[in-house]
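Milestone 3.1: sequence recovery, worked example.
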């Protein structure tokens, strides 16, 4: 399959499922990708074969777009909060990155309520582990310290 055939099949599969702007963006991306790989010495047919079925790609992009649209209210609120702190989001089609540089679409964020909950749980776990270690060592350490003090007192007085 040639680059033009691939792009046309992708266009047909995506038509009506996503906005025209996003459709054009994805078509440009794949067109540029195929041309860049061809400049590196590969044939267009090899690149298109590696990409796979354009209908499957369209289905994946449609699903990603639907997920992206469902998250849009959250993303807009996040952009306002980030811009008020002087942060901006960057990324290509369907990719957004928060202040940490990690994708915010479906990834984990330490700034979210569950991220803060995880941090609190980790802190509590550390405190509990330290308390357990101290509680375990205390019965051993106190007698050893007392014996050393007594030895230093009795042996120190003889010199």
């Amino acid at each position: 399959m040639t680059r033009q055939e691939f792009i046309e099949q992708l266009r047909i599969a995506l038509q009506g499922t996503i906005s025209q702007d996003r459709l054009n963006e994805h078509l440009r991306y794949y067109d540029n990708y195929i041309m860049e790989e061809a400049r590196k010495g590969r044939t267009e047919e090899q690149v298109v074969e590696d990409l796979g079925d354009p209908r499957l790609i369209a289905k994946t992009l449609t699903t990603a777009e639907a997920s992206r649209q469902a998250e849009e209210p959250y993303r807009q609120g996040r952009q306002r909060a980030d811009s008020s702190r002087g942060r901006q989001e960057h990324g290509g089609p369907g990719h957004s990155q928060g202040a940490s540089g990690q994708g915010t679409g479906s990834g984990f964020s330490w700034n979210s309520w569950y991220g803060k909950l995880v941090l609190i749980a980790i802190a509590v776990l550390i405190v509990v582990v330290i308390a357990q270690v101290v509680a375990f060592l205390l019965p051993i350490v106190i007698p050893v310290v007392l014996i050393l003090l007594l030895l230093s007192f009795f042996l120190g007085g003889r010199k």
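The CA atoms of residues 13 and 65 lie 14 Å apart. The chain has two domains: 3-108, 112-159.
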